[in-house]
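User: Can you recover a sequence for this backbone? Please restate the input before giving your answer.

Assistant: Of course. Working from this structure:
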């Protein structure tokens, strides 16, 4: 794969890791995390040996801070959902941040047979009629959700991993994914890259840009939403800050 562009590399690696995870799903989430991580690190060492890597499943040695190009990967996003077949709301994230910008990304949804990537982002379909649909965690809804539901008269759509929720916006299944419960760079870099390439609004909850390959990879909050809803959603979030 050395002769392929970064977008194609990201898509191919996410797809390969997803295929592996499907084959070994009966071994459980710990095995899935490890084997997917080993595969992705091996492939990146082969195809992009000069680049740095930040992975959820590898100790951060911070050498990445000396590099302009850093691959940010989550070998298995949604370990809980992966361990509950036949659920399909789990993902593989492969992204490339260039000087802190999420320029390249692929999100595989293996159990749904999909790989969404920046090399060929899907066209955003018209919004469905009815209330704004807000993707929310099945078990850990963030603090901002209740406020958005009240302010926007939104309907909740429970689902699993961060990647699945973000790609539900890209796929037109929901309209907004807002998270305030804390994440790490590997949770959002690939989904943000894919969503932005599809013309979807991506930012922090205060509207500021998302930056990656930072010294501390913790990212407190995230907003991914249809572009026509960005202004009202951000206004609602600002109102929450004023009233709390």
């Amino acid at each position: 794969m050395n002769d392929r562009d970064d977008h194609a590399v990201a898509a191919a690696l996410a797809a390969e890791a997803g295929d592996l995870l499907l084959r070994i799903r009966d071994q459980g989430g710990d095995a899935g995390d490890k084997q997917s991580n080993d595969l992705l690190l091996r492939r990146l060492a082969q195809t992009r040996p000069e680049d740095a890597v930040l992975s959820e499943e590898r100790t951060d040695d911070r050498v990445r801070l000396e590099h302009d190009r850093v691959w940010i990967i989550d070998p298995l996003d949604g370990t809980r959902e992966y361990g509950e077949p036949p659920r399909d709301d789990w993902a593989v994230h492969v992204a490339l941040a260039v000087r802190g910008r999420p320029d390249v990304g692929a999100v595989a949804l293996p159990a749904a047979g999909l790989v969404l990537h920046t090399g060929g982002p899907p066209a955003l379909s018209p919004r469905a009629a009815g209330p704004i649909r807000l993707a929310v965690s099945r078990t850990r809804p963030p603090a901002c959700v209740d406020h958005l539901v009240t302010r926007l008269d939104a309907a909740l759509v429970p689902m699993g991993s961060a990647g699945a929720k973000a790609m539900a916006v890209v796929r037109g299944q929901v309209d907004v994914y807002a998270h305030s419960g804390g994440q790490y760079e590997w949770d959002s870099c690939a989904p943000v890259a894919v969503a932005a390439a599809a013309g979807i609004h991506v930012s922090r909850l205060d509207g500021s840009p998302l930056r990656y390959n930072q010294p501390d990879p913790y990212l407190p909050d995230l907003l991914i939403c249809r572009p026509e809803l960005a202004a009202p959603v951000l206004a609602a979030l600002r109102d929450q800050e004023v009233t709390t």
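That completes the design. The first strand starts at residue 52 and ends at 55.
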